[in-house]
Specification:
Radius of gyration: 23 Å
Distance between the termini: 29 Å
Mean pLDDT: 92
Number of helices: 15
Structural class: alpha+beta
Number of domains: 3
Number of strands: 25
Strand content: 25-35%
Largest sheet: 9 strands, mixed
Low-confidence stretches: 305-312, 316-326
Helix content: 25-40%
CATH superfamily of the largest domain: Vaccinia Virus protein VP39
Length: about 475
Amino acid sequence: MARLPEEFTSQMQDLLGKEYPAFVASLDGEVPVSLRINRARLRNSVQSGEDREILPENQAEAVPWCSSGYYLRSRPSFTFDPKFHAGCYYVQEASSMFLEQAIKTVVTQPVCALDLCAAPGGKSTHLSSLLPEDSLLVANEVIRSRANILAENNIKWGNPAVIVTNNDPAEIGKLEHCFDLILTDVPCSGEGMFRKDPQSINEWSPSNVILCAERQRRIIAGIWPALKPGGILIYSTCTYNIPEDEDNIARIAEEFGGKVLEIPADHSWNINGKLKGTYPVYRFMPHRTKGEGFFMAVIRKENGDDTPEVAGCRKTKIPGKEKGRQNKTVRIPQEITSWITTPENYSFFEDRGVFSAFPLKHLEKLRIFKESLKILYAGISIGELKGKDIIPCHNLALSTAFNRKIFPELQLDKNQALNYLRKEALFNLPESCPKGYNVVSYDGFILGFIKNIGNRANNLYPQEWRIRSTI
């Protein structure tokens, strides 16, 4: 562990008092390894439906505040576990899984939700699993390279009712009263990551704390108009200090008209409460809980006029924003519609030779978002037209709406699965593997598509997702 800055040491001594020595000692301890199971994968697999079918090890310990979370005894090489690439689980810090308790407490019916600062995708994939059926999730990231990673992780998770966008929070804020729930895991000074990422210690300074706190306030001020009256804002950081945590919660409550809500938490979880003020907040400290530093508060928007219907957003004009090319609803071959389950619940589109499907219930929202936001991915990419051939999209194979009975399925062993994930051609296919498009799977979980051309199979795994290491 690098030497802690004197200003940080003084700050934490003031905040923790007699607990400070235990806190410092915890920073030299082992970093817990944790992940979340994608139970939708179990429901769509040929396995028994038990978590152990997915977990990389048999002795995993449950995360007490997350029903799908587990601690591992050690950190395996996730890159070389085909189930990781199949979207069977997401490697995520355990403290941040407390999101489940907030959602279970405040969300009781389908919502239109926004994960504002969503990359790389831990909380948005968690929201996908937690939100009631028929909800819609918009996962946004302002930095394009990180937004691409966000799209990849959400595609692997497989929820068709997700839109991935690449916009500044202020642009989304122009969609007035559009969202029932907004999750803001805001950029912060990263104090809670000191154990996991010692390099972050060298980047910490009192001035950066103030800079982060000001930026967080701007983000909240920019996105607040997009939250419906009566809607829920979840504010979180991975830091400990008062300016980025309690002070910002007080500003949201007092300046924007928010009511800070209590979230039930078992005393055995050892979660710290407020260190200043009167509002209920939830702070994870590494010497008290098995995880990294994390802070969360849940705020209900109290002010404003009558809540609009879920389907409507009052959109203010975005300067310089041009309306993009609109997808047209088209009649497509029944062959394509049969590739997903319950096609009657989807609207089908064609755009530049790519056929896609999107849940009918959220079609009006998609139209509004297309007019105002930069969408990277929405719904399910089903197939791409190449000449007279329709090539099934990899995204289809990973969707929980995929009808796996349509294509022949080839089971791969681990070495074959890793070769596939490296985008290598597959040879010596069994005679039972017919020519044409086939699904390949590992241990009952789908990895993607191949095209058997006789002497070998063309690998349709995305080039940009391939495993690059040969070790």
